[in-house]
Amino acid sequence: MNAIKVGLIGLGTVGAGTFHVLQRNQAEIRGRAGRGIEIAMVAARNPERAKAFQAIVGDGVPCVGDPQQLVANPDIDIVVELIGGIEPARSLVLQAIANGKHVVTANKALLALHGTEIFEAAREKGVVVAFEAAVAGGIPIIKALREGLTANRIEWIAGIINGTTNFILSEMRGKGLDFATVLKEAQRLGYAESDPTFDIEGVDAAHKLTLMSAIAFGVPVQFDKAHVEGISSLQATDIKYAEQLGYRIKLLGITRRRPGGIELRVHPTLIPSSRLIANVEGAMNAVVVQADAVGTTLYYGKGAGAEPTASAVVADLVDVTRLATADPDHRVPHLAFQPDAISDTPILPMAEVHTAFYLRLVVADQPGVLSRITTILAEHDISIDAVLQRESAEGERQTDLIILTHDTVEGRMNEALAKMQGLPTVLAPIVRIRKEELA
Question: Does the UniProt entry include the keyword Ligase (predicted)?
Fold first, then answer.
């Protein structure tokens, strides 16, 4: 059988990694795919970069500075999009689909915002859009959710799905450093971009969580309804207190099935230090999935980097190659569920989310303060799990009061916080971090 022809758009870290993995492991890939997978053309948006890459790979593979030329090439069967961002990636992917080509992409932002449009266009043309590399790099979490757990009713997913933020939080905890200091170190080491906003503000994690949620629960991709908080305002003080209470703070993406809808949220979260996911350190990723038949499963590995991400891209290429001649109606659906089974289950607003809380209050060191605060919590039907009060040094007139609550509705906590903040004995803005037991 003739080799399948691939066009590769994007010559950055992942694009170069994909090229080299395909070339290096050609024999094994052919044995698994049943036919060869050959890169027939490479394209970059920058003609100078295309010229430089041509010098590296020689004359065997043409490198062009116009991705449109690649997408229009009738000899190419699969287009691999690795340029990232929304445009021109969206236009190139839709044009490739219109030309009857399968697509492999690592572009989580594109799919989180325009996945519904792209998957519908692919379904109408009978082609595949594969995106394993879009979530958690080399961890095969998309395949696990879409195929491996297909017999299960998935209850919830919780994931550390951004390596930059996990590295920063690990360093803050391990070395007692503040956020700004660790961010500079992360940038120096190459873990953080010069503009790290998407990572540290939780946007990158929310893109990935949106895709996992759609596959897990059979709903459209709805990034605009996700609640997103980052770690830029997190203080070393709270990481220290969490540790004393037996918890670690991680930036988690959480999506959970509830009777009234689906939770879709990214934010710093206290996790018991005994949980495996709480011990994921450095730039590693991990995803926990709770399902009815299999119970709890954990997926761990590198979430970024040239070859880990290339591993997922090439795995998608093998899958598409195996399915290229299959009846489109008998392929695994893009979002696991058949199109007519996608539901309109609502994404819950944060006021309706159920979770527990860590609260840190800077309060006047005088009698009756704790009593008034616990009364406010009780009035809002919020029960207390633990209290930690720092001993005041001699001469100090204020102290830190730490409260852990049991699960409650976020809207209730918002009302309680507003009342507590108004007390004259509460001397600074209250720190609120959500807490998940992940039991």
Answer: no
